[in-house]
Design brief:
The complex is a heterodimer of chains A (about 280) and B (about 325). Chain A contains 9 helices and 12 strands. Chain A has about 280 residues and is α/β, with parallel strands linked by helices. In chain A, strands 5-7-8-9-10-11-12 form a 7-stranded mixed sheet, with helices on both faces. Chain A has a two-stranded antiparallel sheet with strand order 1-2. Classes of the chains: A alpha/beta (about 280), B alpha/beta (about 325). At the A-B interface, strand 6, helix 4, helix 5, helix 6 and helix 7 of A face helix 7, helix 8, helix 9, helix 10 and helix 14 of B. The structure holds zinc ion (ZN).
């Protein structure tokens, strides 16, 4: 997929690389197709200056958007995936992991950290779609579990930013059990009455939605994010009909009653701070 | 009467059972001769029956992952309602999620297991073409998962243990299910099952596909029948996504390590319940008897623990699952 163009020395070239975060000089919005300087996009919190499209960003950008002065303590930064099943599809999983780590500079599909958001400590777990489609394997499950333990120990609110195609198939049943592990930890967090906010961003599907993403005290989403259990293609193939317009969009999911509110990324930090303030005082 | 009195024409054979099917056909010919009474072939019949049993045993001890997937989907395999009625008395089915409707793909209710009242909940597949439609092929919508949770909380309220039977090709991927929160329903079930104060036993009796399975699959003990599978995706869908073709289902079935043996070796389930030779469908009554004995002994064991101890070890068990490098 090549939905943005990278420009060097005035020559705009389409990249086939599956790099989601805009890093060229110019950004062409995949929604309105208009171009803008990447620095202007960045100043606008990676929201298209023309049409308010929320560009796909990762943990680096979200941490910067949220933590005061971009100061945070990262947890389990060196944790990487093992290959317990010695899984091979068209390529060995082990090789796929190494290549993805080299290409993205990430260790897996999530990073976890704690730091201050408008002066109050929050534990944040943020998924990275660039890493094998933000898929949940043992690392995602374990890092979330430990981040929740940190939130419980420090009595700091928990925020999980989801962006995932679902399960990491190369970890098969291990991946499935991460749904249970993360949900178990959230049950313990709830017992301590520590607030948990789940922010769903584009896309949040599969086992991630069917576990921690839907279990927030507050389930919130970015505008237009695709949120669902089954992917649209699977549903279409099953029912052999076209899907209604806007189906599985954050706006529709809110109307169905499964979201507390939708938040523009430019207001995310202030809204979170407001929410935690209300709960605290 | 021979134990192989079942007519081969009425039996459903899987592709890999062809050698057995031929032996059954031979056996029937001999039985016809015997019945006509002109010549005594009883010795040949006995020999053939012995051969069938040996062949079956041999075949069923060396099943591949994909073959087990086929057995788990056998059309004559017993489902939840069969087991409950076979093992228990006084089954009282309870319907509905108290919100939308009654989901026919998940059934539940109280029943008496040798004098002990147990809440049984399970996926239910249809036993014929019409019923398969009615049961939506064991694919539940959110209301099915919500009915399951309602019944689990009721069991907790009246201090009755819970047994779930898992047998689903997946939660139903449809428009209405999405609109009514398929993901939310499954997520809530998983979380809330951890906190149930009563003993919970979960058994994969057929197909254990992904979120649709684990949505009623969090227990103090999770067992798999020997010829079932449990994973994050079906081998066919895995083939289509990772190999971009439907032709790699056998390869995917091996790669996913979805059989009971692999799942136990990887510490992802607590035990395997053996099936009669030829699979649960070959001798459903025997299967139900094995299952019943296992349930009773496991409940005896679990009831010795306090609710808090059970909850803690239930949580710890699932939290240990996963392999990472650090
Ligand atoms: Zn735009």
């Amino acid at each position: 997929m090549a939905w943005f163009k990278r420009s060097t020395a005035g020559v705009t070239t389409t990249t086939e690389e599956k790099k989601e975060v805009p890093d060229g000089l110019w950004f062409k919005c995949p929604s309105c197709k208009k171009s803008q300087m990447t620095k202007d996009l960045k100043l606008n919190k990676y929201v298209c200056v023309h049409c308010n499209y929320h560009a796909r960003i990762g943990s680096v950008e979200y941490f910067e958007l949220l933590f005061d002065e971009n100061q945070f303590t990262e947890l389990d930064a060196d944790m990487t995936a093992a290959d317990p099943l010695k899984f091979t599809d068209t390529k060995p999983y082990d090789a796929r992991l190494k290549a993805t780590i080299a290409k993205t500079g990430l260790k897996d599909a999530i990073r976890t950290a704690y730091g201050n958001v408008e002066g109050e400590e929050v534990v944040v777990a943020c998924m990275d779609f660039d890493f094998i489609g933000g898929s949940m394997g043992s690392v995602v499950g374990e890092k979330i579990a430990r981040a929740i333990d940190t939130a419980r120990a420090r009595k700091s609110p928990m925020l999980i930013i989801s962006k995932s195609g679902g399960a990491r198939m190369m970890e098969a049943a291990y991946s499935l059990m991460q749904m249970a592990k993360t949900s178990a930890k959230l049950a313990l967090l709830a017992e301590e009455k520590v607030p948990y906010v789940s922010l769903m961003t584009d896309p949040t599907t599969g086992g991630v939605t069917a576990s921690f993403a839907m279990l927030g005290d507050f389930n919130i989403a970015e505008p237009n994010a695709l949120i669902g259990f089954a992917g649209p293609r699977v549903i279409k193939e099953t029912i052999k009909k076209d899907l209604p317009k806007g189906f599985q969009s954050a706006e529709m999911v809110l109307e169905s009653g499964f979201l507390d509110f939708i938040v523009d990324r430019r207001e995310l930090k202030a809204k979170l701070a407001q929410l935690f303030r209300l709960l605290k005082n | 009467m021979s134990i192989f009195a079942g007519q081969s024409k009425l039996m459903i054979f899987l592709d890999f059972e062809k050698p057995i099917q031929e032996l059954y056909q031979e056996l029937e010919k001999l039985q016809e001769i015997q019945e006509k009474g002109k010549s005594d072939v009883s010795a040949s019949i006995a020999a053939l029956e012995k051969q069938i049993l040996e062949e079956k045993t041999k075949l069923y001890t060396g099943l591949t992952g994909w073959q087990k997937v086929q057995v788990s989907r056998h059309m004559e395999r017993p489902y939840t309602l069969y087991y409950v009625n076979q093992m228990c008395s006084d089954f009282m089915e309870l319907y509905g999620d108290r919100n939308i409707r009654d989901d026919k793909a998940i059934v539940g209710g109280f029943a008496s297991l040798e004098g002990r009242t147990v809440m049984f909940i399970g996926h239910q597949k249809g036993i014929n073409t019409k019923m398969r439609q009615y049961r939506n092929f064991g694919m539940a919508n959110p209301e099915g998962y919500r009915k399951a949770l309602r019944l689990m909380k009721m069991a907790e309220k009246f201090n009755k243990p819970i047994v779930t039977f898992i047998d689903t090709p997946g939660a139903y991927p449809g428009i209405e299910g999405e609109e009514r929160g398929q993901a939310e329903a499954i997520a809530r079930n998983i979380r809330d099952m951890f906190m149930l104060k009563v003993p919970v036993i979960c058994i994969i009796v057929g197909e254990g596909a992904s979120g649709g399975a684990i949505g009623i699959g969090v227990g103090d003990r999770v067992f798999m029948l020997a010829n079932t599978w449990y994973s994050v995706i079906s081998p066919e869908s895995c083939s289509s996504i990772l190999w971009r073709s439907w032709d790699y289902k056998e390869t995917a079935a091996e790669a996913l390590k979805l059989t009971a043996d692999h799942m136990l070796a990887n510490g992802l389930i607590d035990g395997i319940i053996e099936e009669p030779i030829g699979g649960a469908h070959a001798e459903p009554e025997a299967m139900a008897a094995i299952l019943k004995a296992k349930l009773i002994s496991t409940l005896d064991e679990l009831e010795k623990q306090t609710p808090d101890a059970r909850i803690t070890s239930r949580i710890d068990k699932f939290c240990r699952m996963g392999v990472i490098n650090e």
